């Protein structure tokens, strides 16, 4: 299954790994909801939460990057913005087409592939930079969705 957590995705940073696992759980919830032909309202709620969680997670990662002086910040942020646009596109498609299971499943599968690739490449580079520079920081609350800026 595309949304399953795998050892190859482990960055070694408990905070980021925990958020990645939660993100995959939320994507899996959306995928299961679509496959089970949950109602449009239920799918909408799952997408709303996914959107909030993605925004929060990306903000957390970007904050770490800015605070640490990470040289790959701009490229990493651009990848986050691209993915967030896909989340918004999926939300818009759902609003237009309602319970189009095939559309949702295809879009979520593409999102899963992107996430796995991003975790294994870009996030690993960030973690390596933090480790190489002996940078640590306090954990953030992965369930805090209150800082919902509209940067994306």
From TrEMBL:
Residue ranges annotated for the Hemerythrin-like domain, each copy included: 12-129
GO molecular function: metal ion binding
Originating organism: Citrifermentans bemidjiense (strain ATCC BAA-1014 / DSM 16622 / JCM 12645 / Bem)
Keyword field: Iron, Metal-binding
InterPro entries: Hemerythrin, Hemerythrin-like, Hemerythrin-like_sf, Hemerythrin_metal-bd
Name the UniProt record assigns to this protein: Hemerythrin family protein
Family: Belongs to the hemerythrin family.
Superkingdom, taxonomy of origin: Bacteria
Pfam families linked to this entry: Hemerythrin
